[in-house]
Design a protein that fits this description.
Structural class: alpha+beta
Number of helices: 3
Strand order of the largest sheet: 1-2-3
Largest sheet: 3 strands, mixed
Radius of gyration: 28 Å
CATH topology of one domain: Histidine-containing Protein, Chain: A
Helix content: 40-55%
Length: 127
């Protein structure tokens, strides 16, 4: 090969390896501590916010479980087609019930559960 062809081949090889190296090394941080673009003293605020989200998520799961237990304990609760989800104290009921009475009583029972701020009753009555 000529000297020019060798230099061109070396240049192509180096340029091809550059994206691989950047991809493996990353721009900032490491695989355990990714940079958020914030200064180190800002990380406390991010950690606090992240902790609050995690706490809220746990509380939402607990609230949904308390609602499921309350519905199961209610004497008029004779149906299995109801899904319960919770987010920031708002509980959503969805699925199917057999009567309008079951629909309204499910909402009434749910609204009395600890941690429930409001109820979105999306239950459908089967006809």
């Amino acid at each position: 090969m000529t000297e020019t062809a060798t230099k061109v081949l070396a240049l192509i090889t180096c340029l091809s390896a550059l994206p691989l190296l950047v991809g493996l090394m990353g721009c900032a941080g490491d695989r355990y501590n990714q940079s958020s673009g914030l200064r180190p003293d800002d990380n406390r605020a991010v950690e606090h916010h992240s902790s609050q989200r995690a706490d809220q998520s746990v509380e939402d799961r607990r609230t949904a479980e308390r609602v499921r237990e309350a519905l199961a304990a209610a004497p008029e609760y004779k149906f299995d087609g109801v899904q319960v989800t919770a987010g920031n104290g708002v509980v959503q009921l969805s699925g199917f019930v057999n009567t309008r009475t079951q629909r309204s009583s499910a909402e009434a029972v749910t609204s009395k559960v600890e941690g429930v701020r409001s109820v979105e009753n999306n239950l459908t009555v089967r006809d």
